[in-house]
Amino acid sequence: MLFSPGWRAPVRQGQVLAVFSAGLLLGGEVTATVLWLLSGLAAPLPGPVRTALILAVAALGVAREAGWVRIPMPQNARQIPQEVLRARVRRGALQFGFELGTGVRTYVSASAPYVVALGLLLAHQGPVPTLLTGTGFGTGRAATAAARYASRHDEWDDRRVTRMPLVTNAIGVTVLVSLAILLVLRG
After folding, report:
1. Has the keyword Membrane been applied to this entry (predicted)?
2. If DSSP codes are grouped into helix, strand and coil, which group holds residue 4?
């Protein structure tokens, strides 16, 4: 468990959540910076080719979320050792959050982050939109932990599991529509 065992613990759960969330945001920013730097490799591709590739990847992501196609997502099967969170709670929470925030330390089951990452690589946007996207990724992961912490009820997990397919499909369609609109407006 990420949080300390209760009110008698030397580190309060709210503090651990704050440090964990900071790590998530930092990890998202590092990933966004790497994506921005690598996006220069797509710059030589003509705009219409990049647009078609982005829309194809987004459509494939939506099809995967809807269950129409099966595409395995990359994953890092290693788990973060328990000692990371037990020895030094704040430092471990920061490290854990950073690794999760990068998106490469864990299995991300949803297609949307992969679609957005490939979209950023292909679109070759400036650093500000790319960094804002990284902030959004870290914030989204932090919001889940904060909601779980705030609920303090085990039923929260049951409700989350039943609603997740609806949320994921809605996000997939939103990403596809948003990318299409942005690319059309960009010209």
Report:
1. yes
2. coil
How far apart CA 175 and CA 171 sit, in angstroms, is 6
Identify the burial level of 59 via C-beta atoms within 10 angstroms of its C-beta, where 0-12 means exposed, 13-18 middle and 19 or more buried: middle
Quote the percentage of the chain above a pLDDT of 90: 24
**How far apart (Å, rounded) are the C-alpha atoms in residues 12 and 18?**
10
pTM of the model: 0.75
Are 122 and 73 in contact by the 8 Å Cβ rule? The answer is no
Helix 89-102 × helix 13-38 angle, to 10°: 30
- Pick left, alpha or beta for residue 68 (phi over 0 → left; psi -120 to 50 → alpha; otherwise beta): alpha
Q: Are 33 and 95 in contact (CB under 8 A)?
A: no
What ranges do the domains of the chain cover? 13-186
CA nearest to 176, candidates 109, 119, 107, 124: 119
Task: Give the list of residues 6+ apart from residue 18 with CB closer than 8 angstroms, or none.
Answer: none
